[in-house]
Protein backbone atom coordinates (compact mmCIF):
# COMPACT_ATOMS: atom_id res chain seq x y z
CA UNK A 1 0.00 0.00 0.00
CA UNK A 2 2.67 2.42 1.17
CA UNK A 3 5.02 1.62 -1.69
CA UNK A 4 2.18 1.92 -4.22
CA UNK A 5 1.45 5.42 -2.88
CA UNK A 6 5.10 6.20 -3.34
CA UNK A 7 5.14 4.80 -6.86
CA UNK A 8 2.13 6.88 -7.84
CA UNK A 9 3.74 10.01 -6.43
CA UNK A 10 6.90 9.26 -8.39
CA UNK A 11 4.84 8.79 -11.53
CA UNK A 12 3.19 12.17 -10.95
CA UNK A 13 6.54 13.90 -10.40
CA UNK A 14 7.76 12.31 -13.61
CA UNK A 15 4.77 13.63 -15.53
CA UNK A 16 5.25 17.15 -14.22
CA UNK A 17 8.92 17.00 -15.16
CA UNK A 18 8.07 15.75 -18.68
CA UNK A 19 5.54 18.47 -19.37
CA UNK A 20 7.92 21.11 -18.05
CA UNK A 21 10.60 19.83 -20.41
CA UNK A 22 8.11 19.83 -23.29
CA UNK A 23 7.26 23.46 -22.64
CA UNK A 24 10.94 24.38 -22.45
CA UNK A 25 11.61 22.55 -25.74
CA UNK A 26 8.66 24.22 -27.44
CA UNK A 27 9.96 27.61 -26.40
CA UNK A 28 13.39 26.77 -27.79
CA UNK A 29 11.96 25.42 -31.07
CA UNK A 30 10.01 28.63 -31.49
CA UNK A 31 13.23 30.60 -31.26
CA UNK A 32 11.65 32.61 -28.48
CA UNK A 33 13.94 31.39 -25.78
CA UNK A 34 15.10 34.00 -23.33
CA UNK A 35 18.58 34.30 -21.93
CA UNK A 36 19.00 32.74 -18.52
CA UNK A 37 21.71 32.67 -15.91
CA UNK A 38 21.73 28.88 -15.66
CA UNK A 39 21.57 28.11 -19.37
CA UNK A 40 24.62 25.81 -19.26
CA UNK A 41 24.18 24.50 -15.71
CA UNK A 42 23.79 20.93 -16.91
CA UNK A 43 25.55 21.05 -20.30
CA UNK A 44 28.70 22.80 -19.03
CA UNK A 45 28.53 23.17 -15.25
CA UNK A 46 32.11 24.45 -14.82
CA UNK A 47 31.80 27.09 -17.58
CA UNK A 48 32.09 30.20 -15.44
CA UNK A 49 35.13 28.89 -13.53
CA UNK A 50 36.84 27.92 -16.79
CA UNK A 51 36.32 31.34 -18.38
CA UNK A 52 37.34 33.05 -15.15
CA UNK A 53 40.62 31.11 -15.01
CA UNK A 54 41.42 31.71 -18.68
CA UNK A 55 40.81 35.46 -18.43
CA UNK A 56 42.79 35.70 -15.19
CA UNK A 57 45.73 33.91 -16.78
CA UNK A 58 45.72 36.30 -19.73
CA UNK A 59 45.26 39.31 -17.42
CA UNK A 60 48.35 38.22 -15.43
CA UNK A 61 50.32 38.25 -18.69
CA UNK A 62 49.17 41.64 -19.98
CA UNK A 63 47.15 44.38 -18.45
CA UNK A 64 45.55 45.31 -21.79
CA UNK A 65 43.41 42.17 -21.40
CA UNK A 66 40.71 43.86 -19.31
CA UNK A 67 40.14 47.07 -21.29
CA UNK A 68 40.49 45.25 -24.59
CA UNK A 69 37.91 42.60 -23.68
CA UNK A 70 35.40 45.03 -22.20
CA UNK A 71 35.53 47.24 -25.30
CA UNK A 72 35.28 44.22 -27.59
CA UNK A 73 32.02 43.20 -25.91
CA UNK A 74 30.55 46.68 -26.41
CA UNK A 75 31.51 46.76 -30.08
CA UNK A 76 30.14 43.27 -30.64
CA UNK A 77 26.76 44.09 -29.10
CA UNK A 78 26.21 47.36 -30.97
CA UNK A 79 26.74 45.83 -34.40
CA UNK A 80 24.17 43.10 -35.22
CA UNK A 81 23.74 42.30 -31.52
CA UNK A 82 25.85 40.35 -29.03
CA UNK A 83 26.62 37.45 -31.38
CA UNK A 84 30.43 37.40 -31.59
CA UNK A 85 30.22 38.76 -35.15
CA UNK A 86 33.13 41.06 -34.26
CA UNK A 87 35.33 37.99 -33.75
CA UNK A 88 35.16 36.77 -37.35
CA UNK A 89 38.37 36.89 -39.39
CA UNK A 90 38.00 37.40 -43.12
CA UNK A 91 40.90 36.73 -45.49
CA UNK A 92 39.41 39.43 -47.75
CA UNK A 93 39.57 42.02 -45.00
CA UNK A 94 35.85 42.77 -45.18
CA UNK A 95 34.62 41.54 -41.79
CA UNK A 96 33.30 43.72 -38.96
CA UNK A 97 36.72 43.89 -37.30
CA UNK A 98 38.22 45.42 -40.47
CA UNK A 99 36.05 48.54 -40.22
CA UNK A 100 37.66 51.87 -39.31
CA UNK A 101 35.89 51.88 -35.95
CA UNK A 102 37.13 48.43 -35.03
CA UNK A 103 40.73 48.65 -36.24
CA UNK A 104 41.75 50.12 -32.88
CA UNK A 105 40.33 47.15 -30.95
CA UNK A 106 43.34 45.71 -29.14
CA UNK A 107 44.34 42.21 -30.27
CA UNK A 108 44.49 41.02 -26.67
CA UNK A 109 40.69 41.17 -26.43
CA UNK A 110 40.30 38.76 -29.34
CA UNK A 111 43.04 36.56 -27.91
CA UNK A 112 41.28 36.45 -24.53
CA UNK A 113 38.10 35.08 -26.10
CA UNK A 114 40.00 32.59 -28.30
CA UNK A 115 41.91 31.26 -25.27
CA UNK A 116 38.79 31.06 -23.09
CA UNK A 117 36.95 29.24 -25.89
CA UNK A 118 39.77 26.71 -26.19
CA UNK A 119 39.62 26.04 -22.46
CA UNK A 120 35.83 25.66 -22.60
CA UNK A 121 35.96 23.36 -25.66
CA UNK A 122 38.38 21.07 -23.80
CA UNK A 123 35.67 20.56 -21.17
CA UNK A 124 32.34 20.83 -23.00
CA UNK A 125 32.94 20.69 -26.75
CA UNK A 126 30.43 22.24 -29.12
CA UNK A 127 28.08 23.55 -26.45
CA UNK A 128 28.97 27.12 -25.49
CA UNK A 129 28.71 30.04 -27.92
CA UNK A 130 31.52 32.53 -28.47
CA UNK A 131 28.98 35.30 -27.80
CA UNK A 132 28.41 33.93 -24.28
CA UNK A 133 32.12 33.47 -23.68
CA UNK A 134 32.70 37.10 -24.65
CA UNK A 135 29.92 38.24 -22.29
CA UNK A 136 31.45 36.23 -19.43
CA UNK A 137 34.97 37.43 -20.26
CA UNK A 138 33.76 41.05 -20.18
CA UNK A 139 32.38 40.48 -16.68
CA UNK A 140 35.73 39.01 -15.59
CA UNK A 141 37.49 42.08 -17.04
CA UNK A 142 35.42 44.29 -14.74
CA UNK A 143 35.98 42.07 -11.69
CA UNK A 144 39.74 41.62 -12.26
CA UNK A 145 40.25 45.40 -12.28
CA UNK A 146 38.30 45.92 -9.06
CA UNK A 147 34.80 46.55 -10.41
CA UNK A 148 31.53 44.98 -9.27
CA UNK A 149 30.71 41.34 -9.94
CA UNK A 150 27.35 40.42 -11.39
CA UNK A 151 25.56 37.43 -12.86
CA UNK A 152 25.60 37.12 -16.64
CA UNK A 153 22.60 35.95 -18.63
CA UNK A 154 23.49 33.20 -21.11
CA UNK A 155 22.06 31.36 -24.09
CA UNK A 156 23.22 33.59 -26.97
CA UNK A 157 23.98 31.94 -30.29
CA UNK A 158 26.78 32.99 -32.63
CA UNK A 159 25.89 35.09 -35.67
CA UNK A 160 26.26 33.99 -39.29
CA UNK A 161 27.18 37.39 -40.68
CA UNK A 162 30.10 39.77 -40.21
CA UNK A 163 30.53 42.61 -42.71
CA UNK A 164 32.69 45.70 -42.54
CA UNK A 165 29.86 47.71 -44.11
CA UNK A 166 27.46 46.84 -41.26
CA UNK A 167 29.51 48.80 -38.77
CA UNK A 168 28.87 52.22 -40.30
CA UNK A 169 26.84 54.45 -37.98
CA UNK A 170 26.32 51.70 -35.40
CA UNK A 171 29.16 52.68 -33.10
CA UNK A 172 29.58 55.98 -31.25
CA UNK A 173 32.42 58.26 -32.35
CA UNK A 174 34.75 60.02 -29.90
CA UNK A 175 33.67 63.44 -31.18
CA UNK A 176 29.95 62.72 -30.86
CA UNK A 177 27.84 65.25 -29.01
CA UNK A 178 25.44 64.27 -26.25
CA UNK A 179 22.33 63.93 -28.41
CA UNK A 180 24.08 61.73 -30.96
CA UNK A 181 25.25 59.46 -28.15
CA UNK A 182 21.80 59.39 -26.57
CA UNK A 183 20.08 58.52 -29.87
CA UNK A 184 22.54 55.80 -30.73
CA UNK A 185 22.19 54.20 -27.30
CA UNK A 186 18.39 54.52 -27.44
CA UNK A 187 18.38 52.50 -30.67
CA UNK A 188 19.86 49.70 -28.60
CA UNK A 189 17.35 49.95 -25.76
CA UNK A 190 19.83 51.83 -23.56
CA UNK A 191 18.69 55.02 -21.84
CA UNK A 192 20.52 58.08 -20.55
CA UNK A 193 21.43 56.45 -17.23
CA UNK A 194 22.85 53.47 -19.15
CA UNK A 195 24.86 55.83 -21.39
CA UNK A 196 26.42 57.59 -18.43
CA UNK A 197 27.05 54.33 -16.55
CA UNK A 198 28.51 52.38 -19.48
CA UNK A 199 30.79 55.27 -20.41
CA UNK A 200 32.33 54.63 -17.00
CA UNK A 201 34.10 51.70 -18.69
CA UNK A 202 36.57 54.42 -19.69
CA UNK A 203 37.84 54.17 -16.12
CA UNK A 204 40.29 51.64 -17.59
CA UNK A 205 42.31 51.61 -20.79
CA UNK A 206 43.61 54.13 -23.26
CA UNK A 207 42.90 56.02 -26.48
CA UNK A 208 45.15 56.84 -29.41
CA UNK A 209 46.11 60.51 -29.80
CA UNK A 210 44.25 60.68 -33.11
CA UNK A 211 40.95 60.17 -31.22
CA UNK A 212 41.24 63.49 -29.38
CA UNK A 213 44.04 65.52 -31.06
CA UNK A 214 41.53 67.92 -32.53
CA UNK A 215 40.56 68.92 -28.98
CA UNK A 216 44.09 70.02 -28.11
CA UNK A 217 45.31 71.52 -31.39
CA UNK A 218 42.56 72.25 -33.82
CA UNK A 219 39.31 72.75 -31.97
CA UNK A 220 37.73 75.67 -33.82
CA UNK A 221 38.49 78.89 -35.62
CA UNK A 222 38.05 80.70 -32.31
CA UNK A 223 40.08 78.46 -30.04
CA UNK A 224 42.77 75.86 -30.75
CA UNK A 225 41.88 74.08 -27.49
CA UNK A 226 38.46 72.75 -26.56
CA UNK A 227 37.24 75.17 -23.86
CA UNK A 228 35.60 72.34 -21.91
CA UNK A 229 39.09 70.89 -21.28
CA UNK A 230 41.00 71.83 -18.15
CA UNK A 231 43.88 73.98 -19.59
CA UNK A 232 46.54 72.22 -17.53
CA UNK A 233 45.29 68.83 -18.67
CA UNK A 234 45.26 70.08 -22.27
CA UNK A 235 48.92 71.07 -21.88
CA UNK A 236 49.81 67.63 -20.50
CA UNK A 237 48.02 66.01 -23.42
CA UNK A 238 49.92 68.18 -25.90
CA UNK A 239 53.16 66.96 -24.35
CA UNK A 240 52.00 63.36 -24.56
CA UNK A 241 50.72 63.74 -28.11
CA UNK A 242 53.04 66.02 -30.10
CA UNK A 243 51.50 67.57 -33.24
CA UNK A 244 51.63 65.45 -36.34
CA UNK A 245 50.02 62.50 -34.59
CA UNK A 246 52.19 59.45 -34.11
CA UNK A 247 49.70 56.61 -34.65
CA UNK A 248 51.25 54.51 -31.89
CA UNK A 249 50.98 56.88 -28.95
CA UNK A 250 48.09 56.50 -26.53
CA UNK A 251 46.86 58.38 -23.46
CA UNK A 252 45.01 56.80 -20.55
CA UNK A 253 41.29 57.50 -20.47
CA UNK A 254 41.48 57.81 -16.67
CA UNK A 255 45.07 58.90 -15.97
CA UNK A 256 44.60 58.87 -12.18
CA UNK A 257 43.81 55.15 -11.99
CA UNK A 258 43.93 53.64 -15.46
CA UNK A 259 44.25 50.07 -14.18
CA UNK A 260 41.44 50.25 -11.68
CA UNK A 261 37.73 50.01 -12.32
CA UNK A 262 36.47 52.80 -10.06
CA UNK A 263 34.45 56.04 -10.23
CA UNK A 264 37.45 58.36 -10.79
CA UNK A 265 36.29 58.73 -14.40
CA UNK A 266 33.31 60.80 -13.18
CA UNK A 267 35.46 62.90 -10.82
CA UNK A 268 37.67 63.69 -13.84
CA UNK A 269 34.68 64.92 -15.85
CA UNK A 270 33.86 67.27 -12.99
CA UNK A 271 37.18 69.09 -13.48
CA UNK A 272 37.33 69.07 -17.29
CA UNK A 273 39.47 65.97 -17.55
CA UNK A 274 37.40 63.78 -19.79
CA UNK A 275 39.71 62.63 -22.57
CA UNK A 276 37.22 62.29 -25.41
CA UNK A 277 34.55 64.77 -26.43
CA UNK A 278 32.00 62.00 -25.79
CA UNK A 279 33.25 61.72 -22.21
CA UNK A 280 33.19 65.42 -21.37
CA UNK A 281 29.77 65.83 -23.02
CA UNK A 282 28.20 63.78 -20.21
CA UNK A 283 29.11 66.57 -17.80
CA UNK A 284 28.64 69.50 -20.18
CA UNK A 285 25.07 68.45 -20.90
CA UNK A 286 22.77 69.58 -18.12
CA UNK A 287 20.42 66.61 -18.46
CA UNK A 288 23.13 64.03 -17.67
CA UNK A 289 25.28 66.15 -15.34
CA UNK A 290 23.34 65.18 -12.16
CA UNK A 291 24.02 61.51 -12.91
CA UNK A 292 27.73 62.21 -13.40
CA UNK A 293 27.80 64.04 -10.06
CA UNK A 294 25.92 61.20 -8.38
CA UNK A 295 28.36 58.58 -9.72
CA UNK A 296 31.34 60.77 -8.75
CA UNK A 297 30.07 60.98 -5.18
CA UNK A 298 28.59 57.52 -4.75
CA UNK A 299 30.67 54.64 -6.10
CA UNK A 300 27.91 52.25 -5.03
CA UNK A 301 25.38 53.99 -7.27
CA UNK A 302 27.82 53.84 -10.18
CA UNK A 303 28.47 50.14 -9.65
CA UNK A 304 24.75 49.32 -9.44
CA UNK A 305 23.93 51.35 -12.57
CA UNK A 306 26.88 49.84 -14.44
CA UNK A 307 25.73 46.30 -13.65
CA UNK A 308 22.17 47.08 -14.75
CA UNK A 309 23.42 48.62 -17.97
CA UNK A 310 25.85 45.77 -18.74
CA UNK A 311 23.03 43.25 -18.42
CA UNK A 312 20.89 45.36 -20.75
CA UNK A 313 23.80 45.69 -23.19
CA UNK A 314 24.15 41.90 -23.12
CA UNK A 315 20.58 41.48 -24.38
CA UNK A 316 20.96 43.69 -27.45
CA UNK A 317 19.97 41.82 -30.62
CA UNK A 318 20.75 38.40 -29.22
CA UNK A 319 20.10 35.27 -31.24
CA UNK A 320 18.65 32.36 -29.28
CA UNK A 321 17.04 28.96 -29.78
CA UNK A 322 17.83 27.64 -33.24
CA UNK A 323 19.03 30.94 -34.68
CA UNK A 324 22.70 31.21 -35.59
CA UNK A 325 25.11 28.51 -34.50
CA UNK A 326 27.56 27.44 -31.82
CA UNK A 327 30.89 28.25 -33.45
CA UNK A 328 33.72 25.81 -32.97
CA UNK A 329 36.35 28.46 -33.63
CA UNK A 330 35.34 31.97 -32.61
CA UNK A 331 37.21 33.54 -35.54
CA UNK A 332 35.43 31.49 -38.25
CA UNK A 333 31.91 30.41 -39.18
CA UNK A 334 31.43 26.65 -38.91
CA UNK A 335 31.25 26.13 -42.64
C1 LIG B 1 29.66 56.42 -25.23
C2 LIG B 1 30.26 56.28 -26.38
C3 LIG B 1 31.65 55.74 -26.52
C4 LIG B 1 32.58 56.25 -27.36
C5 LIG B 1 32.44 57.44 -28.30
C6 LIG B 1 33.78 55.46 -27.18
C7 LIG B 1 34.95 55.65 -27.88
C8 LIG B 1 36.15 55.08 -27.55
C9 LIG B 1 37.42 55.40 -28.18
C10 LIG B 1 37.61 56.35 -29.34
C11 LIG B 1 38.37 54.67 -27.55
C12 LIG B 1 39.87 54.67 -27.85
C13 LIG B 1 40.21 53.60 -28.85
C14 LIG B 1 41.64 53.66 -29.28
O1 LIG B 1 42.11 54.74 -29.67
O2 LIG B 1 42.33 52.63 -29.21
C15 LIG B 1 37.72 53.90 -26.53
C16 LIG B 1 38.36 53.04 -25.67
C17 LIG B 1 37.70 52.21 -24.80
N1 LIG B 1 36.33 52.05 -24.68
FE1 LIG B 1 34.95 53.31 -25.43
N2 LIG B 1 33.55 54.50 -26.25
C18 LIG B 1 32.26 54.62 -25.83
C19 LIG B 1 31.61 53.78 -24.92
C20 LIG B 1 32.19 52.66 -24.38
C21 LIG B 1 31.46 51.63 -23.68
C22 LIG B 1 29.96 51.61 -23.48
C23 LIG B 1 32.38 50.71 -23.28
C24 LIG B 1 32.16 49.41 -22.54
C25 LIG B 1 31.14 49.14 -21.79
C26 LIG B 1 33.67 51.19 -23.69
C27 LIG B 1 34.86 50.59 -23.39
C28 LIG B 1 36.10 51.09 -23.75
C29 LIG B 1 37.36 50.63 -23.19
C30 LIG B 1 37.52 49.62 -22.08
C31 LIG B 1 38.37 51.32 -23.87
C32 LIG B 1 39.88 51.16 -23.69
C33 LIG B 1 40.37 50.16 -24.73
C34 LIG B 1 41.84 49.82 -24.62
O3 LIG B 1 42.55 50.33 -23.75
O4 LIG B 1 42.27 48.98 -25.43
N3 LIG B 1 33.51 52.36 -24.38
N4 LIG B 1 36.36 54.15 -26.56
C1 LIG C 1 17.03 53.65 -17.42
O1 LIG C 1 16.58 52.33 -17.21
C2 LIG C 1 16.78 51.83 -15.89
C3 LIG C 1 16.24 50.41 -15.84
O2 LIG C 1 16.76 49.62 -16.86
C4 LIG C 1 16.10 52.69 -14.87
O3 LIG C 1 16.42 52.24 -13.58
C5 LIG C 1 16.54 54.13 -15.04
O4 LIG C 1 15.82 54.97 -14.17
C6 LIG C 1 16.31 54.58 -16.47
N1 LIG C 1 16.83 55.95 -16.64
C7 LIG C 1 16.18 56.87 -17.34
C8 LIG C 1 16.83 58.19 -17.46
O5 LIG C 1 15.11 56.65 -17.86
C1 LIG D 1 44.68 71.29 -38.08
O1 LIG D 1 43.75 71.20 -39.17
C2 LIG D 1 44.28 71.58 -40.42
C3 LIG D 1 43.17 71.58 -41.43
O2 LIG D 1 42.33 70.48 -41.25
C4 LIG D 1 45.43 70.60 -40.75
O3 LIG D 1 46.00 70.95 -41.99
C5 LIG D 1 46.48 70.65 -39.65
O4 LIG D 1 47.50 69.68 -39.91
C6 LIG D 1 45.87 70.39 -38.29
N1 LIG D 1 46.88 70.60 -37.27
C7 LIG D 1 47.13 69.71 -36.31
C8 LIG D 1 48.18 70.07 -35.34
O5 LIG D 1 46.55 68.65 -36.20
From TrEMBL:
Ca(2+) 1 binds at residues 76, 79, 81, 83, 85, 96. Heme b binds at residue 202. GO terms for molecular function: heme binding; lactoperoxidase activity; metal ion binding. The keyword Iron applies. The active site is at residue 75. Ca(2+) 2 binds at residues 203, 254, 262. Its cofactor is Ca(2+); heme b. One of its GO terms (biological process) is hydrogen peroxide catabolic process. GO terms for cellular component: extracellular region. Binds 2 calcium ions per subunit. Residues 1-33 form the signal peptide. The record marks 71 as: Transition state stabilizer. Keywords: Calcium, Disulfide bond, Heme, Hydrogen peroxide, Iron, Metal-binding, Oxidoreductase, Peroxidase, Secreted, Signal. It is found in: Secreted. Residues 34-334 form the Plant heme peroxidase family profile domain. Disulfide bonds join 44-124, 77-82, 130-330, 209-241. InterPro entries: Haem_peroxidase, Haem_peroxidase_sf, Peroxidase_pln, Peroxidases_AS, Peroxidases_heam-ligand_BS, Secretory_peroxidase. Its EC number is 1.11.1.7. It catalyses: 2 a phenolic donor + H2O2 = 2 a phenolic radical donor + 2 H2O. Substrate binds at residue 172. Removal of H(2)O(2), oxidation of toxic reductants, biosynthesis and degradation of lignin, suberization, auxin catabolism, response to environmental stresses such as wounding, pathogen attack and oxidative stress. These functions might be dependent on each isozyme/isoform in each plant tissue. Belongs to the peroxidase family. Classical plant (class III) peroxidase subfamily. Belongs to the peroxidase family. Ascorbate peroxidase subfamily. This is Peroxidase. It comes from Chenopodium quinoa.
Amino acid sequence: MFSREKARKKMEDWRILCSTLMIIMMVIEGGEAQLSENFYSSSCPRLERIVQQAVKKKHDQTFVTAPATLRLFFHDCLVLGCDASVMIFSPNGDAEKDSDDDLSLAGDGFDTVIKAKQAVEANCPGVVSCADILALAAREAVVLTGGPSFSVELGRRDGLRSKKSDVTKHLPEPDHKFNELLNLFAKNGLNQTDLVALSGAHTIGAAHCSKFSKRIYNYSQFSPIDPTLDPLYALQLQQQCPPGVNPNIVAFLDPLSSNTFDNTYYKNLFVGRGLLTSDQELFTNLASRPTVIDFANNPGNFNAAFVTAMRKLGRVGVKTGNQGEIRRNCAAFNS
